[in-house]
Design goal:
heterodimer, A: about 425 residues, about 75% helix, about 0% strand, B: about 180 residues, alpha+beta, four-stranded antiparallel sheet, 6 helices
Chain lengths: ~425, ~180
């Protein structure tokens, strides 16, 4: 009776392969090139208005990767599963990029008066008289003043960063401690990390909702949507999974990921990402359908700003880019199991997320609402976020190199080293 | 069709899916084609090992889904614009955003039903009789904890004595002959 084991063994060196340094220098190069392009465009446009707006887009992208990574890490600690063993260290590295995101945010905090109408207008009656705002905006700004003022903006954001920082520090420190402890204590660590992560997910949802309301939704002080936080939450799952699949498939070209990454788990992560593609369009379309059906003067202008004046082209492309294309491609089992093609889909999804944010951010401003037009400034959206994300990726690479890539004290490790047909 | 008689095939029993997959790969490599694997739960590698080929279920599902989409969307359009146009809050009679949700539901419904019935139509289920149930170890183990490889008598390489010896070389728990 054949009963010999066919399990693979984990390589002795679990550190990140050397080519991660190559990723870092490539990312730095892209960052520098696009910074130069951004500066040139700002010069051609003669103002930094669009640099700042595009900066918010870059902030939302890197914030999504960093805090979204923390959230997926917590979800993984609560749900368990073999995919988590692959993604845990990349997700930890993503969460530890929070300081850079905070630095990015500082720029927004300093330029709050240029970016947000409610910060610009201190005297509502005067602004109304001078024609800077209309009556609806005057009412909304006055009514929301206790929440929308620079002081609260800064304190709420700093508090959110402190909370995310606390969770990042705790989970990262305990993750290392668990590995240095004896394997016999692993059940204790699993329970402990689960107990931190469970409430952490709730805290994350609340703080993340507060942050996106302040940073993005309040650009239009008149409008509100109760699904807004959830929309960004799902969006973060969407881009975080896309990015971590790119990272883990990239790492699988060398040890230790060559040994631990099996096609089964790659397929699982693809399916997981597909669920986020569906959930994302479900919420985005749900919000649209409800506001369209209600057709109320408080809500509908937000969509009209984003549909009329050629913005209809952008929203149609947005629908195709961030739902139709990933949806049809990810339906295919072959694409999900093919490394090269899955990476292409993931790269496309990250681009699509940025495109969606462009559609959310730019029409908030008077010069762009219901009037999509060319200016050198609008090209900043293709330069500033790329540079910011590239610098973020470089920082991420240093974080990734700081730790071994595989957690060894994990009950799933033995399973993941076995050949794929042993388990259903 | 007259009832078939004689040997249906030789059935090898394995304790683990790993052993089954290795045996199935070996058999395919050695030129066997008329064979099948039986497992208590889906083992995708076993299907690949015996040369799983593509079938038309995905295509049937896609066509079904698109038919559901087209059917519901045109039904709603016909009702709202031609058959019974209503003024609802001043909206145009052709209000496509409101049509999306039912059209989507019908896409899912039709795709799901096409997948289920397409699968049944193509794989010949439900079957009232299958010769493998004549083997007692198959009856007892195939749905719980045993893994089976069956080399069928229809294969041109099949020869009762030689094939039995060949299967025993693959180190199964047992090899039994199955009658029609």
């Amino acid at each position: 009776m054949a009963h010999e084991t066919h399990a693979k063994t984990l390589p002795a060196d679990l550190g990140a392969p050397a080519f991660v340094d190559g990723w870092k220098s490539r990312a730095l190069m892209v960052g520098v090139v696009f910074s130069v392009i951004a500066a040139g465009l700002a010069f051609a446009d003669g103002s930094i208005e669009h640099v700042l707006r595009a900066w918010v887009l870059g902030l939302m992208m890197t914030f999504g990767f960093s805090v979204g990574g923390l959230a997926l890490l917590m979800v993984q600690y609560c749900s368990g599963g073999k995919w988590g063993l692959l993604l845990r260290r990349p997700l930890e590295a993503m969460s530890r990029t929070l300081p850079l995101v905070f630095v990015y945010w500082l720029v927004v905090a300093f330029e709050v008066k240029r970016l947000y109408l409610w910060a610009q207008v201190s005297d509502v009656t005067a602004a109304l008289k001078s024609g800077l705002i209309n009556e609806v905006q005057a009412h909304a700004i006055e009514f929301k003043r206790p929440m929308l003022n620079p002081g609260t903006f800064i304190w709420v954001s700093v508090l959110c960063f402190a909370i995310w920082g606390l969770y990042t520090w705790r989970l990262n420190a305990l993750g290392l401690k668990r590995d240095s402890d004896s394997p016999a204590n692993t059940p204790y660590w699993i329970k402990k990390l689960e107990n931190i992560s469970g409430p952490g997910i709730v805290v994350y949802s609340l703080t993340m909702t507060a942050a996106v309301i302040y940073w993005v939704m309040s650009m239009d002080p008149t409008w509100y949507s109760s699904v807004y936080g959830l929309l960004f939450l799902v969006g973060q799952g969407y881009m975080v999974l896309a990015f971590s699949i790119i990272v883990s498939l990239g790492l699988s070209k060398a040890e230790p990921f060559r040994t631990v990454l099996r096609q089964t788990e790659q397929h699982d992560m693809g399916k997981f990402m597909f669920a986020f593609v569906m959930l994302n369009i479900y919420l985005a379309f749900g919000q649209f359908l409800i506001i369209w059906s209600g057709n109320l003067p408080e809500e509908i202008p937000w969509y009209l700003d984003r549909i009329r004046g050629h913005w209809g082209i952008i929203i149609t492309l947005d629908f195709m880019f961030h739902w139709l294309i990933p949806f049809t491609l990810l339906l295919s089992r072959d694409i999900k199991r093919n490394k090269k093609r899955l990476v292409r889909v993931c790269q496309w999804m990250i681009f699509a997320k940025a495109f969606d944010l462009f559609w959310l951010i730019e029409p908030n401003y008077k010069d762009a609402a219901r009037n999509l037009h060319f200016s050198w400034g609008i090209l900043e959206y293709a330069a500033v976020p790329v540079a910011m994300t590239a610098f973020w990726v470089a920082f991420f690479c240093t974080r990734l190199k700081a730790r071994p890539l595989v957690q060894t004290n994990d009950p799933h490790l033995a399973e993941i080293l076995e050949p794929e047909h042993v388990h259903a | 069709m007259p009832p078939r008689e004689g040997t249906y095939g030789l059935l090898a029993e394995f304790d683990t899916p790993g052993d089954l997959v290795r045996a199935a790969r070996q058999a395919r490599q050695d030129g066997w084609r008329r064979m099948d694997c039986y497992t208590p739960y889906p083992v995708e590698e076993a299907a690949e090992a015996i040369g799983f080929h593509r079938n038309k279920v995905p295509l049937i599902t896609l066509i079904g889904g698109l038919m559901g989409l087209a059917a519901m969307f045109s039904l709603e359009t016909w009702i709202s614009t031609l058959a019974f146009p209503l003024n609802i809050g001043g909206r145009p009679t052709y209000s496509w955003p409101a049509f999306i949700v039912p059209a989507y539901e019908w896409t899912i419904l039709f795709a799901g039903l096409s997948a289920a019935f397409g699968m049944l139509a193509l794989n010949g289920l439900p079957a009232l009789y299958h010769p493998l149930f004549n083997a007692p170890n198959f009856r007892d183990g195939a749905t719980t904890d045993k893994f089976f490889l069956c080399l069928e008598a229809l294969d041109p390489k099949f020869n009762l004595a030689e094939t039995k010896a060949y299967l025993e070389g693959l180190q199964p728990v047992s090899v039994v002959e199955v009658e029609y």
